[in-house]
Design goal:
Blueprint lengths: L5 E4 L3 H12 L4 E4 L3 H8 L8 E4 L2 H6 L6 E4 L5 H10 L8 E4 L5 H13 L3 E8 L1 H7 L2 E6 L4 H11 L14 E2 L2 H29 L5 H11 L7 H11 L22 H12 L4 H14 L1 H8 L13 H34 L5 H7 L10 H11 L10 H24 L4 H13 L6 H12 L33
Parallel strand pairs: 1-2, 1-4, 2-3, 4-5, 5-6, 7-8
Antiparallel strand pairs: 6-7
Helix pairs in contact: 1-6, 5-8, 8-11, 8-12, 8-14, 9-10, 11-12, 12-18, 14-17, 14-18, 15-16
């Protein structure tokens, strides 16, 4: 009997919790997993007594669903998604919907939208953020794909999503084809930057000021009451206070300093390069994880390479406040880069991205949720055509108020040999963006010298190119002018 509202394939942690979230909000869910035992364990465990049907074949899953059928995949990104799509297609009817709720790369969602629409089906690629807790209690959901599909799942998605204070769900239609997964990718890239910047604040307090995790726990708790109020600052305070059961030392100090990554930060950086958008803070956060991973090399190098001492003789409390200001200013620049990237992608892929709504979607449920996002939404509500967050009056004033401390912290870090790549790259982005002139004239002269790549002149209209025979030995033939 066809009676279930939606089907879900993939009963790992996220899948199980989303199913329980849907059922709690009044939806009947049919579930399937390639490993049958996971289905058995789930329906006889966490799902027991609930409106959740365990299915043991694809045919049974499809037969259980109301039409048009809605099937959500929560499987590993890449080939497994394509494999399940091809397994499902023979069992579906025109107008049925497949949803990819994993961390897929947005070009794959563009391709899958076209592939399924050509066959008469609908597709949504949706970003889901918030981890295990968010999936169960309310994630941020960022759907994009076939426009006709949104009415089929809007009620489900908005019901299970996190809500802001006035009850507005952290979910809205993002745009066509790959727009949903693109916005989720940028979210994850910003998350990389946020995590690295918080880690740099911690590292400065530990190595420069000599503070312990116990000393820092109330500092991060206090920061979470002001401008930096966010999920990541909140959990950082909790991490600082956690003790290791075995050694009775702070657990943080027992964790090896090598960071992993699943690729979304790398995708964000690569896409920024492809679109010619400056996003150095995300890139530096990715590279910081990469250098952390070569632990053995760093240990060996530490015994051979010298640098300055990290002695500090000033007012520690005052410097902690400077670090807070540096963190806030860097955070503003990191988000400015993320929004600049989304604006460029909207033009490239013809997406009608609503930037204020994206900030609202990130306001609850997701990993980068923060009070700060209200200011971003307000900025785009006031000026939907805002080209850069740094030009909004609130953020311009915030940078003005914090940049002296920001520069002092970075300068002190450089002088004492403490790496702060995210702080530094954010400041370099700010200084570059506010500069009327940059040394790119020399770069272009060099390119023309060795490769006849031409240049524009300050006394001629934009788009008119020139070539100089710099040595007197070359000819007048110039290379084709193009930009990657």
């Amino acid at each position: 009997m066809q009676e279930y509202d939606i089907g879900l394939i993939g009963l790992a942690v996220m899948g199980e919790n989303l199913v329980l979230n849907m059922e709690r909000n009044g939806f009947k869910v049919a579930v399937y997993n390639r490993t049958v035992k996971k289905v058995e364990d789930f329906v006889n465990g966490r799902a027991k007594g609930k409106h959740i049907k365990g299915c043991y074949t694809i045919e049974e899953l499809v037969a259980s669903l109301d039409r048009p059928r809605k099937i959500m995949l929560l499987v590993k990104a890449g080939k497994p998604v394509d494999e399940f799509i091809d397994v499902l297609i023979p069992h579906l009817d025109r107008g049925d919907l497949i949803i990819d709720g994993g961390n897929s790369h947005f070009p794959d969602s563009i391709r899958r939208t076209n592939y399924l629409e050509d066959k008469g089906f609908l597709f949504i690629g949706t970003g889901v953020s918030g981890g295990e807790e968010g999936a169960l209690n309310g994630p941020s959901i960022m759907p994009g794909g076939s426009e006709k599909a949104w009415p089929l799942v809007a009620n489900i998605f908005k019901s299970i999503a996190a809500k802001v204070a006035d009850g507005t769900p952290c979910c809205d239609w993002v745009g066509s084809n790959g727009a949903g997964h693109f916005v989720k990718m940028v979210h994850n890239g910003i998350e990389y930057g946020d995590m690295q910047m918080i880690s740099e604040a911690y590292w400065l307090m530990k190595n420069l000021l000599g503070l312990t995790p116990g000393d820092m726990q109330p500092i991060f708790s206090e920061w979470n009451k002001g401008e930096l109020d966010s999920y990541l600052i909140e959990i950082t305070a909790e991490i600082m206070g956690k003790m290791d059961d075995d050694t009775k030392n702070p657990l943080l100090e027992m964790i090896l300093d090598t960071a992993g990554q699943k690729g979304t930060g790398k995708w964000t950086s690569g896409t920024a390069l492809d679109l010619g958008v400056p996003a150095p803070t995300v890139a530096e956060a990715v590279f910081a994880r990469a250098i952390s991973a070569i632990k053995e090399e760093r240990v060996a190098a530490s015994k051979k390479l010298s640098g300055p001492s990290s002695a500090f003789s000033g007012d520690k409390k005052a410097f902690v406040e400077m670090i807070r200001k540096a963190l806030y200013a860097s955070k503003i620049c990191s988000y400015a880069q993320g929004y600049q990237l989304m604006r460029a992608a909207a033009q490239e892929y013809e997406w009608q991205l609503k930037f204020g709504q994206i900030a609202l979607m990130w306001r609850g449920g997701c990993i980068i949720r923060a009070q700060f996002l209200d200011k971003i939404k307000a900025a785009f509500d006031t000026n939907p055509d805002l080209t850069n967050l740094l030009l909004d009056p609130y953020f311009k004033r915030a940078i003005d108020e914090n940049q002296a401390s920001w520069r002092k912290v970075i300068g002190t870090a450089v002088e004492t040999g403490i790496p702060v790549p995210a702080f530094s790259s954010a400041l370099a982005y700010y200084d570059g963006y506010r500069s009327e002139k940059l040394p790119a004239n020399l770069l272009q002269a060099q390119r023309d010298y060795f490769g006849a790549h031409t240049y524009e002149r300050i006394d001629q209209p934009r788009g008119k190119f020139f070539h100089t025979n710099w040595t007197g030995r070359g000819g007048t033939t110039a290379s084709t002018t193009y930009n990657v």
